[in-house]
Write a structure and sequence with these properties.
The complex is a heterotrimer. By secondary structure, chain A is of the alpha/beta class. Chain A has five helices and 13 strands. Chain A starts with about 25 loop residues before the first strand and ends with a helix. Chain B is of the alpha+beta class. Chain B contains 27 helices and 28 strands. In chain B, strand 17, helix 20 and strand 18 form a beta-alpha-beta unit. Chain B is globular, with a radius of gyration of 27 Å. Chain C is an alpha+beta fold. A three-stranded antiparallel sheet of chain C has the order 2-1-3, covered by helices on one side. Chain C is elongated, with a radius of gyration of 16 Å. The relative contact order of chain C is 0.31. The chains are: A alpha/beta, B alpha+beta, C alpha+beta. Chains in contact: A-B, A-C, B-C. At the A-B interface, helix 1 and strand 6 of A face helix 9, helix 10 and strand 14 of B.
Chain lengths: ~260, ~775, ~90
Amino acid sequence: MSTETPLIGSYSADAAGPDLTDARVGIVTFPGSLDDRDASRAIRLAGGTAVPLWHADSKLYDVDAVIIPGGFSYGDYLRAGAISRFSPLMDKIIDAANSDAKLPVLGICNGFQVLTEAHLLPGSMIKNDHLHFVCRDQRLRVETNATDWTASFEPGAEIVVPLKNQDGQYVADEKTLDELEGEGRVVFRYVDHNPNGSRRDIAGISNAAGNVVGLMPHPEHAVEAGFGPDASAAGPVELRGGLDGLNIFTSALKKIVGSKA
Amino acid sequence: MSAEATGQKFNIDTVEHAAGTPETDLPWAELGLKDNEFARIQEILGRRPTAAELAMYSVMWSEHCSYKSSKVHLSQFGEKVTEKMKEHLLVGIGENAGVVDIGDGWAVTFKVESHNHPSMVEPYQGAATGVGGIVRDIISMGARPVAVMDPLRFGAIDHPDTARVVHGVVAGIGGYGNSLGLPNIGGEVVFDSVYQGNPLVNALAVGVLRHEDIRLANASGTGNKVVLFGARTGGDGIGGASVLASESFDDTKPSKRPAVQVGDPFAEKVLIECCLELFKASVVEGIQDLGAAGISCATSELASNGDGGMHVELTNVLLRDPSLTPGEILMSESQERMMAVVTPENQAAFEAIMDKWNVEYSWLGEVTGTGRLVIDWAGETIVDVDPRTVAHDGPVYERPFARPEWLDALQQQKFDGERPASDSELRAAVLELMASPNMCSKDWITNQYDRYVQGNTAMAMPDDAGVVRVDEETGLGVAISTDCNARYSYLNPYEGARAALAEAYRNVATSGAKPLAVTDCLNFGSPEDPAIMWQFAETVRGLADACQELGVPVTGGNVSLYNQTGGVGIHPTPVVGVLGVFDDVTRRTPSGWREDGQAIYLLGTTRDELDGSEWANLRGHLGGQPPVVDLEAEMTLAAILINSSRDGMIDSAHDLSEGGLAAALSESSLRFGVGARIGLDELCERDGVDAFTALFSESHGRAIVGVPRSEEVRFKDMCTARRFPFIRVGVVDTANGALDVQGRFSLPLDELRAAHEGTLPKYFG
Amino acid sequence: MPRIVVDVMPKPEILDPQGKAIAGALPRLGLDGFVEVRQGKRFELTIDGEATDEALAKARTAATTLLSNPVIEDVTRVEWINDAAAGDVE
């Protein structure tokens, strides 16, 4: 059965487009997941319907997409994402992502690490080059709109979203990196400042089909006025008014609703 | 592992055995008990204590658990509370943490606690488990933890050992707090050589709950079951009590017990979610976290707060280290454990929730109506006590205190050091101040903490207070700030305590919130030194008086004594946390300005008050009297700041404290990288001070605000009506890129920022 | 070039959260029978020059001062790795 994670409060419906509520996005909670409620909020604010999923479950409840949120699942012990990757629900997600239906999957931060451990995405994350946890507002370039999660962006668009991690340095061998670049699968790249030593300033990548995307920064923390970063790539904003992350969620919701129509 | 098998290894000192062997030599002195205390235990029991009883009394009667030196003074926090102050208090002092009503059926619980000594032994684990401990206090009230903050004190920034401690403590706080998914929204960092051997690591946590969800630590209902859950019990934190090995006849046990408690943030995160599910399903009657004194504390407090009786089988405790003796099990401070009372009907539901979260548990025993706490070991009674005598009726000392003789001489040493006068000297002084260890940017530290997680952080460092939303529909939320200037307390502990409260209160009001309640962490040296005891007594008196004047009650906190390495005591460091409430957190006021042309007003009066100031500190001076605290003025200032925020009359506000106007102007400019043109002449003339004093004095009761042009008339009318001094000191300038003190000097923000942000990376990066 | 291996383990009485989490995960993969997992660290120190006793002594000092935290960890091994370059010292 699906589990309901206790929320601090209920949400007011603040839908960007009511037609998107048909899109049901599953949010996975592992023991040690931290940004699961935040990912749910982001889906809701983008107009979709969030469905909590529990790691030990082996059903996906007919969700149209899945987000694996940030956190320290299983304490990040052994390697970040290494233990979560073997949960029953992950088996279902891996099958659905690789199936003909090509379930859209987004891994954020720890979720990205889980996706690499699950071999849905190539490469891996190691400790930041400066060895510290880092929390900052980070500028990114959206390199491609040929994925389910960036379809609503212009290629080359820039966004500012929070970044917060300890093991965020993306590494892969040169051949893999060349392939990712050549196939247009580098989805997000750090701009102005590489915060963790990631190879080729890579902040996020996709699989070949473009339905599975992983990124280290946290777009779900730049979706609500008053609680986001102090900056937007578009220019000055009110205090904590950055909303640049929202379009990532809307991209997937629109795609889902479009394919249902 | 069979519990009975473990039990066989020891020659157990039963109650029956103790009654028949009155002459047995017991290691009470090694366990820290004084001879009068040991005699009192024998008197209570009418016989000698068993080894297990001795273990319980020794930890529960320690300074840390019993507050035996501080109790007689702390009672003022209760005595000086009026009915009006209790208006918002749902749970007051004495429980794991106080609970404050913030309206709409919501309540908030918050508390600050010390973890100084463990952080001195092992900075990373000490700081990490400090966060873990305070968070469990919050959970045990029935609340979801929603934020943490950490007031920290380190030794001199350039001392060779400081970097080790800073790296360990900061990584420990981040490593634990970040992994729990709790935003870190503020705190303090102070460097001073008095903390060289005694770093202070205080941790504050705040939690949110509905009124009906309040849980208390009591064991009621005869026949209800007692359960221990979470991590297994190991030898953590009992290294100093290795004398207990004398009750063991087993030589295979580890030769040393770890004095260091290792934290497991993942286990704690799971424990948080699991407890919240227990509360939601209403399957626990009472709950208590395990911290200092572990099972000794949890059983005796639960039992004495309830119907008065509990019967426990100690071999049921799940162990990480099977060689632990009963006494050691009772004293262990293993982290991430909780104890709960569950009705027999709810046992299955409880177990289902444990299994879902994969949390280990063991049923230890049940609540009884006997009035006794009885603990068995494999069926034989090893503890039979009145739980109140363990938990509440510990020794109380009226320790002698005396105003130190050196204080008069110290208070007469007014600051007579360098007072920069020329324009270039003033410019250099501002740069030096803003780059100094205590005034420099703390980004290097705070950027290692997650301030975003949970998505409710409306404001965090470097603004005046941390602000989190509680209700997503209405925007109802809270602001918290912690403050303390220990140099002020050293010069005058009574005034220093009032100043700490005044500043935290002012910070909360500056953010726009209405101050409601107080928590405190009183860090001092040895209570056996009459001078230090006097500092403590004066501090408590000052804080209790100031709370009464401001109408905000102390809801809980912690006392940390013996912060004294090598005979050198720390400055008295009463860290005060104030919690305030917002109807809607989106109305909070940031510390920096952004709109071109907005007027900058200084509220309050500037006096020549440099004693104890950051500037005096930079010139190696500490003497005189700290700045005067006027709580009437603080309340008026707070009312102005709160009303201005609510009615949209100001766009920025920043309180003046350490570093005075120079620091406030610099920080408000750097917050969003927007400059200002400032004129000091009118201020100097009105208050009769020179430019240096205007910039560096630390007079209380002041703040600078950014007022939109359209609101200036209304704002000035309000200040006039409240008879509060205000003066226009400048205007926001989005084009000049500088803090331009007109006619005197101009500081390009790039230069100021480089100085401000370069210091910590230089020493620790 | 000669290499020295240093193993550092959490002290037996100290909680090892990482080992605990791994021990919990193994049975879920059907890998039963491991009653405890403890996770340590391995360091390899490469020497530029001869494999001398002095170098080994230095490595021991490094192991107890920097590579381990004596409050919570034990150094369980400091020795030459028996590979081609270091073979002659064994």
